[in-house]
Write a structure and sequence with these properties.
The protein is α+β, with helices and mostly antiparallel strands. It is built from 3 helices and 3 strands; from the N terminus they run E-H-E-H-E-H.
Amino acid sequence: MDGKLTKIFLGTDIEANYIAAMLQEDDINCVVRNAFQASITVGWADGSPAQSTELFVNESDAEKARKIVEKYINRE
């Protein structure tokens, strides 16, 4: 990934990875960062699993990615 990264989602690990797969289907590269799991790995738990995983994309892909996130959030 190149350029500046923009956070487009914060939520559970399951949701973030599902959205990441949706983004990859549309050829949008992303970075998934799970702060809760990372803190456990080093020996303590920081934060809540419900709001632990962030999803980042290149700034140039942010608008397209946000539309995909919105589609996921507003699913019926």
